[in-house]
Amino acid sequence: MSCKELGRAGVLERVKSGELKLVNAAVMMGLSYRQTKRLAKRYGEEGAKGLKHASAGRESNRRKPRRFRERVLRLVGQKYSGKEGERFGPTLAAEHLASDDHVEVNAQTLRRWMLAEGLWSRARKRGVHRKRRERKKHVGELVQMDGSFHGWLEERGPRGCLMNMVDDASGDTLAHMESEETIWAAAGVLRAWVKKYGIPVALYTDWKNVYVREASTKEQLRGVVPVTQFGQMCQRLGIRIIAANSPQAKGRVERNHGTHQDRLVKKMRLKKIRTYAEANEFLEKEYLPEHNRRFRRIPAEPENYHRAAPRAAELEEVFHLETGRVIGNDWVVRHDNRYFQVKAQARQYAPAKGKVTVCEWEDGRLEIRYRGRAVVWEEIPGPVPVPTVRPRATAKKHKPPAPKADHPWRLDYRKMRAWSKPGTRPVSLIHEISG
After folding, report:
1. Which of 188, 250, 297, 323 is the most buried (most CB within 10 A)?
2. pLDDT tens per residue, range 343-353
3. Containing structural domain, residue 79
4. Do 353 and 417 belong together in one domain?
């Protein structure tokens, strides 16, 4: 079963116990009410196994033949492809294939084929349009996250970044102060939120590379959706990331920043807080509980859409970085300018040129995994660079003295004399040239 199907099983179990209604479960799973009702019936009869898709692992019964696809792509490449701006789009190409080549193919099917072969790239044009968005009705349905750079400690300490999370329905706030808006800073505040409230359905962030990033040209041609390291952590938790196209879109957390920049700064000034550690302790024990009591709103609906937080060991497995690497011919993995010698072992054999995943935790722990299982390794020193041999400094050559003013080199060529042979009379150079 997939992670999505396992997540649905947890939601439907809450429906079965009477904790949630079907209409609320439909919103949490992103399905229609009718589909949720069918899944709930299947879950009650067969359990979690009934949620597994019956067509999983099988090819579609309506797929086109391979030869037909190759013929269509060959025609597109020969007649309707070209540079960007000149090539035909999938809709236009499908029309000409039908009219000129008598080949019927759906435009959306052709779009997928062209994207897979690199004959087309997505280029969506979005107009500027903003509309007031109402608050979500349920707690945990949407949580806004952002970092605010400000002189929080004023002249008493360095300039820092307040990582802030605000529930869209209730206004519940959780914040943590760091030096920069990094992956670990975002992961730290999200981890604290999950421990306190549970796993939200979606996060509303901006377009910083920490959260989401735009696809490169190569990724667009391949149809790959880029995922950041923080995005991978959210995927493991089943959290959907929504990127805002303007600061006004996530105005809830932006206005929350303004409140903190006024009240929090003044309160920390009274407490004479000078370090991030003192600031975070003050946030957790005094400021945030008071802030939530004062500014919290009652959500429109009483149901809580937060899912239960995983166990400590599972949560530790969620928040780590993953980087793909290749084992060298000498069974050495290079990562972050460090070298790791993979050792031979009986249960798990990682071959040379095999792909492994380097997992890194915030405390510096590393783990190298091959096909999902950890391998034994030890860190070794890197190769010693060969010193560059520099040529010896040669003695300075004496510069010849400059010729005097009456030296022949400084005379006009018309006044210079030349002797063709010793003992002959001088002949004018100009005569030699002319004669």
Report:
1. 250
2. 887 666 778 88
3. 66-117
4. no
